[in-house]
Each structure stands twice: as structure tokens, then as C-alpha cells.
Write a structure and sequence with these properties.
This protein is of the alpha/beta class. It folds into two domains: 50 residues, no CATH class; 187 residues, Rossmann fold. Helix content is 56%, strand content 10%. Strands 3-2-1-6-7-8 form a six-stranded parallel sheet, with helices on both faces. Helix 1 packs antiparallel against helix 2, helix 4 crosses helix 9 and helix 4 crosses helix 10. Bound molecules: ligand PTJ. The site of ligand PTJ has 26 residues, from helix 3, helix 5 and helix 9.
């Protein structure tokens, strides 16, 4: 047992922040296995902070976005799920399941292209049953000229030719580039003000660890529905409203927590 595994064992199951600590250790384990990059730890911390002020639950605006996201994935002609280090460390199993239900292949696409990371993520996804993984053949990759980061290198059979790209948890420059290429983008991001959130067509403002199991549940239920049923869900959906509702929720939530904190201090 390594020191991280020992620390996980030491977290008591009745600890008020048990789940949050468990996810932290998954990210640390990912760092030790090369799946996660050092900056991924910082990204996770930023996510935790937003999760806190979202009440650490899937709010109604996130649930509506999840339903619309699944409808869009099921309606897509060529959907793709982009996988990075943090999403693989936290939710490899769920990504594989979602890929199976929505028939959207998985493509590994990393911001930090460190030696051995693609192999480490590939191994993790395979262990969870992934059959087809794109983004792993160096020679096959082509570049998106709208993007200068390492993420510009994409698979011609995946992100490059996809009409709908699902980007759980990532940095903002790519969503903007994908939109410029005429693709529809679905994002999961706890920060409603990030560039990813603002540029995406559908922004799921929730923690990936809660959002993905719900996406799987919706896709199981919705995958046999006809096109007009799925289209109606999309037509009703408004992403600007989602972001505004999330921001209003945060303001209200912080005010209510402030009142609670004062009551505790007074008593
Ligand atoms: O594995 P790589 O090399 O592709 O790199 C991945 C990271 C995440 C390091 C890279 O994409 C990055 O630096 O991302 P940013 O710019 O820090 O953005 C990450 C976004 O994800 C932030 O807006 C966070 O609030 C959000 N976030 C972090 N953890 C979660 C999350 N959103 C949903 N669920 C989370 N668990």
C-alpha cells in the first residue's frame, strides 16, 4: 500500500467531507500513475471551490443541461467524447459506459503532452472495458490550426470530423476553437464564468462525478426515443439561461450560508 492509499484508508467514512476527500485522493493517485498532470491538482482545487458554492449537488439547471446534452449526443451524426487526465482519473468507468450508451467513441486529448500519459490513460480506460480509443496513434494525428496548444493534435476519425464534441472538465481555448470550426460543444464545468462554460452550446454546471452517472441514466432511458422527442428537448433548452440561473443560485446560496454562519456564531 503506497502513502496515498494509506491516506485514503485513514479517512473515516463518517467524515463530513468523505466524498470530497475520496475524489481528491483519486486525483493524487492519477498523478502518481501519470494520468493526471501537476496542473490537474490545481484545476481540481478550483473545481472544489465552485462546487462548494453550488451546494455540492446537482441543481435543476444542471439536470436540464444534462438532459439536453444527452439528447444532442443521441441526435449527433458523429459524436465524440474527449478524455483528459482529470476526467479519466475521476470517472474512467462512467466515461466508458456513456460512450457505449450514446455510441460516441472516446478520444484522449491532452493539454499537457508529457511522455507516457496517453498510455497511462489508455490503460485505465481499457481496464474499464473501453473497446475503441482514439487519439493514441501519433502518426495518424492531424492539427487544428485554430488552436495552438497541444490539444490541436486530434484524430481525423474523432474530434476532427465530429459534429458534436463532449469536453468534460477542461481549459477554455479549445471550446472556442471547436465552435469556430462549426462543431457543437457540450461541456461539464463547475465554473459558470469560465470561457468553456460561456462558449459551449450546452454547459453542465456540476461536478463531473455527479453529472456523468446522471448522463448515463438519461442515455439509457432516452436512447430508444425518436428524433422528434429528442429535438423537442433541445429546442426548449437555453444555455444562457442555464448560466444566469447558476450565477443567481450562487449569489442566493452564499447569502443563505452567510446567515447560517452568523446564527452559529451568535449561539
Ligand atoms: O489532462 P490535461 O493535460 O488535458 O489537463 C487537464 C487540466 C484540467 C489540467 C487542464 O485542462 C486545465 O488546466 O484546465 P483548467 O483551465 O484549470 O480548467 C479546468 C476547469 O474544470 C475549471 O473551470 C474548474 O473549475 C473545472 N473543474 C475542476 N474539477 C472539476 C471541474 N468541473 C467539473 N467537475 C470537476 N470535478
Amino acid at each position: 500500500m503506497n502513502s496515498n492509499e494509506k491516506q485514503v484508508e485513514d479517512v473515516p467514512i463518517d467524515h463530513p467531507r468523505y466524498l470530497s476527500l475520496k475524489h481528491r485522493h483519486k486525483i493524487i493517485e492519477g498523478l502518481q500513475n501519470l494520468v493526471v498532470t501537476e496542473a490537474g491538482l490545481i484545476a481540481h482545487g478550483r473545481g472544489e471551490c465552485f462546487d462548494y458554492i453550488l451546494g455540492e449537488k446537482t441543481n435543476v439547471f444542471a439536470k436540464n443541461a444534462i438532459e439536453a446534452a444527452v439528447a444532442l449526443l443521441l441526435l449527433a451524426k458523429k459524436p465524440i467524447i474527449s478524455v483528459n487526465g482529470n476526467s479519466a482519473a475521476l470517472c474512467a468507468k462512467e466515461l466508458v459506459k456513456l460512450s457505449q450508451y450514446t455510441k460516441a467513441p472516446l478520444e484522449i486529448n491532452l493539454f499537457y503532452g508529457k511522455e507516457g500519459r496517453i498510455k497511462a490513460i489508455q490503460k485505465l480506460l481499457k481496464r474499464e472495458g473501453a473497446l475503441e480509443i482514439l487519439g493514441i496513434e501519433e502518426d495518424k494525428m492531424i492539427e487544428i490550426k485554430e488552436l495552438s496548444s497541444n490539444r490541436r493534435r486530434v484524430d481525423p476519425d474523432g474530434i476532427y470530423s465530429a459534429d458534436v464534441v463532449f469536453v468534460p472538465l477542461e481549459d477554455g481555448d479549445r471550446t472556442e476553437a471547436l465552435k469556430k470550426l462549426g462543431k457543437k460543444v457540450i461541456a461539464i464545468d463547475l465554473n459558470p464564468l469560465s470561457r468553456t462554460s460561456i462558449w459551449a452550446d450546452i454547459t453542465i454546471i456540476d461536478n463531473i462525478v455527479r453529472a456523468l452517472p446522471k448522463m448515463i441514466k438519461f442515455s439509457k432511458e432516452m436512447r430508444h426515443k425518436d428524433q422528434s422527442f429528442l429535438t423537442k428537448i433541445l429546442v426548449k433548452y437555453n444555455n444562457q439561461k442555464t448560466i444566469q440561473t447558476a450565477l443567481n443560485f450562487i449569489i442566493k446560496y452564499i447569502k443563505s450560508q452567510k446567515r447560517k454562519a452568523f446564527e452559529i456564531v451568535k449561539n
